[in-house]
From TrEMBL:
The chain crosses the membrane at residues 26-44, 72-102, 114-135. PANTHER family: P PROTEIN (PTHR43568:SF1). It comes from the Bacteria. One of its GO terms (cellular component) is membrane. Residues 1-80 form the Citrate transporter-like domain. This is Citrate transporter-like domain-containing protein. One of its GO terms (biological process) is transmembrane transport. It is a multi-pass membrane protein. InterPro entries: Cit_transptr-like_dom, Diverse_Ion_Transporter. Keywords: Membrane, Transmembrane, Transmembrane helix, Transport. Its main location: membrane. It is found in: Membrane. The lineage of its organism: Bacteria, Bacillati, Actinomycetota, Actinomycetes, Micromonosporales.
Amino acid sequence: MVGGLVETGVIDTLARSATDAVAGKLWPATLLMLWASAGLSAIVDNIPYVATMSPIVSELVNAEGGMGKAQVLWWALAIGADLGGNATAVGASANVVVLGIAERAGHRISFWGFTKYGLIVTVISVAMAVPYLWLRFFAF
């Protein structure tokens, strides 16, 4: 127990496992980070998700030398978490606020009604981010 917090070591274990799995496969890891972040951020608010994933990304970046191409993993995390929040009503706080405002104005939007359009927007947005990450990975 450190500073009143219980340390389970789960994040450290995940970070080491991810580092072992990536080992020289940085571009596939970048795509996995992007799409997994988008998917998970659709059901978990993006701030706690990014806070949880930051030590894992840090470990991956450091394992790849800390600079250069490995930095694209931070971009993949940020973009995936940000865009993934658009997929569902609970993916971002702003979505919940908008649903409340719409309901007060007499326009109820159901969770599934939101998700039907949110998923389409999210998949297209994340797919459009792939060329950007490709440029950051291969051109910089």
